[in-house]
Design a protein that fits this description.
- The protein is α/β, with parallel strands linked by helices.
- Helices cover 33% and strands 25% of the residues.
- The strands form five sheets. Strands 5-4-13-14-15-12-16 form a seven-stranded mixed β-sheet.
Length: 410
């Protein structure tokens, strides 16, 4: 089979995973990233067992697991510090085939980029879809340096995807959910003394999360109701201190240690309506470009990784069967990914609404239910990821257990 060409528009986790998975299967891949570099500013990313298994299909799973500090336990808390429920990563590993690993996003990006040949990633280059292609012609992408033609174009250009808008110009854009998130990483030298236990704290109309990273760094994230595109008086760190400064340890200490310039603020958007398809012509959408979701299940990046690996597998399989043409794979890609990701988008939105209840009576009922479930049905909260974190990729090998590479019999 002749060498196949793919152009990936967007150099985030989903786009780089798609590029690495396609390259692993023999494709000639070019990644176009409009930013000047592949160096995302301080934020963490959670990768559950489903995403780790997807990464295992091209040999990156163990390397990603090595980027993470083991998360032994954690749980949900009230702003005063009371534990509503506890989580056990060992129980998650038994249920889903592996625990969640949390790593610095920049480390994951660098790892994925290292899986590609030199020159495959072009930063500071904006790619625009000129022609989605079809059975009788390749897809065409324009760049400042000329036109690129490919058997497959991957639109991985995020929530405000220009590729999606070109393919489905009349479809509603992702909708602002009414919530904003903040994220930052505290370096080890400034982290609170005595260690930090992973936790998420649910308060009135807002939440806070803390996760230890490797080398002593700490990843913190927050979510609160806010108008879209609002500006915080005095800056974002000052706003976080107003919202969370009197919450339990180590929240005030992390806020005191945070660098104001390193705090990221992003309005949360979610797919208003599912797209009619995740493909058109020779173009496939993945990740936030296809199905943006709230962060409350920790599955945004995971679903992008799943998309990428499924697309690479199906496209290569179709090209092998159809004389080097991956086009017949794209309807199947939509059929496999659209129902699943739509369900995850909706489930994540439900968790987000539950986490950020504003009414006092609603929060009291929710908290009482969480405490009772933790006492009488331990690990009940893990059921929220049933059918999500237990997903397996369509190819092998994949990791069935953390740190153990297994291979199913053919």
């Amino acid at each position: 089979m002749r060498e196949l060409r793919a152009v990936v528009i967007g150099g985030g986790v989903g786009g780089l995973t798609a590029a690495a998975a396609l390259h692993h299967r023999g494709w000639d891949v070019t990644v176009l990233e409009r930013a000047a570099s592949l160096e995302p500013v301080g934020a963490g990313i959670a990768l559950a067992a489903n995403a780790q298994r997807a990464l295992d299909t091209f040999g990156a799973g163990d390397a990603v697991r090595a980027l993470s500090v083991p998360q032994v336990d954690g749980g949900l808390r009230r702003p005063g510090g009371y534990w509503l429920s506890r989580t056990d990563n060992a129980a998650a590993a038994r249920r889903f085939g592996g625990p969640v690993v949390v790593a610095h996003r920049a480390d994951v990006i660098a790892l994925l980029a290292s899986r590609l040949p030199e020159g495959a990633v072009r930063t500071g280059v904006r790619g625009e879809l000129a022609d989605p292609g079809g059975p009788d012609r390749p897809a065409r992408v324009t760049t400042p340096g000329g036109v690129l033609e490919a058997e497959l174009v991957v639109g991985a250009d995020g929530i405000h995807s220009a590729v999606r808008a070109a393919l489905f110009p009349g479809h509603p854009a992702p909708r602002y959910t009414g919530f904003t998130t903040w994220r930052f990483v505290v370096p080890a030298a400034a982290a609170p003394q005595g260690g930090t236990t992973a936790h998420e704290t649910w308060g009135p109309g807002r939440l806070w999360g803390t996760v230890p990273l490797r080398d002593g760094r700490v990843y913190a994230y927050a979510q609160a109701a806010a108008p879209a595109r609002a500006q915080s008086p005095g800056g974002e760190l000052a706003q976080l201190r107003r919202l969370f400064g009197d919450w339990h340890h180590p929240v005030p200490e992390l806020l005191a240690a945070a660098d104001p310039a390193a705090v990221l603020r992003n309005d949360v958007h979610s797919a208003a309506d599912p797209l009619p398809a995740y493909h058109h012509g020779r173009v496939a959408l993945l990740g936030d470009a296809a199905h943006s979701m709230t962060p409350n299940l920790g599955q945004g990046g995971c679903q992008a990784v799943e998309d990428a690996v499924v697309l690479a597998h199906l496209a290569t399989e179709a090209a092998t069967v159809h004389g080097g043409d991956p086009l017949p794979a794209l309807p199947r890609y939509t059929a496999e990914r659209l129902p699943r990701t739509t369900a995850v988008v909706r489930r994540s939105a439900r968790v987000g609404r539950l986490a950020c209840l504003s009414s006092r009576s609603g929060r009291l009922l929710r908290d009482a239910a969480l405490v009772a479930a933790d006492r009488f049905a331990p690990h009940l909260a893990l059921r929220g990821l049933d059918g999500v974190a237990d997903w397996h990729p369509p190819v092998h090998p994949y990791a069935a257990q953390t740190g153990t590479r297994t291979k199913e019999a053919p």
